[in-house]
Amino acid sequence: MSSVSVYSGPQGTVRVALPFDLAGLLAGWKRVRSAMREIPAEFTRDEWAYLASYRSERPSRAGARAAFSPGHEGESRCGSPTT
Q1: Parallel, antiparallel, or unpaired: how do β-strands 12-18 and 3-9 relate?
Q2: 3-state SS, residue 77
Q3: What is the domain count for the chain?
Q4: Does some domain include residue 16?
Q5: What integer pLDDT is reported at residue 41 of this predicted model?
Q6: How much is the pLDDT for 21?
Q7: Can you give the pTM of this predicted structure?
């Protein structure tokens, strides 16, 4: 399955077609994060929390917004994607 995301910025609108289901991929990461409850001895609590939070949906979508909504800085001012 594929997906299309739409990003709007001051330069116009960009449609990004992906050869996979983006919402499904992000949902899969949510399952991985929920399985990361135990902290391995090799990591501090803060390091492990950073790894778990990094793979949440917000940072994943923020990278796409930064790449495909030119002229916008910061996630809160970027166009909203529709998948």
Answers
A1: antiparallel
A2: helix
A3: 1
A4: yes
A5: 94
A6: 86
A7: 0.50
Over residues 31-81, the pLDDT tens digits come to: 888 888 889 999 999 999 888 877 667 777 777 777 776 554 443 333 444
CB 3 within 8 A of CB 83: yes
13 phi/psi in degrees, rounded to 5: -115, 140
SS3 12: strand
**Pairwise CA distance, residues 47 & 54, whole Å:** 11
Owning domain of residue 12: 3-73
Q: Which of 28, 27, 26, 3 is nearest to 16 (CA)?
A: 3
Q: Is residue 18 predicted with pLDDT exceeding 70?
A: yes
For residue 22, the Cα-to-chain-centroid distance in whole angstroms is 9
The answer to whether residue 7 sits within a structural domain is: yes
Runs of H (alpha helix) within 1-83: 22-35, 45-54, 57-68
Has residue 79 been placed in a domain?
no
Tokens, residue 77:
């001012």
Is 36 among the domain residues?
yes
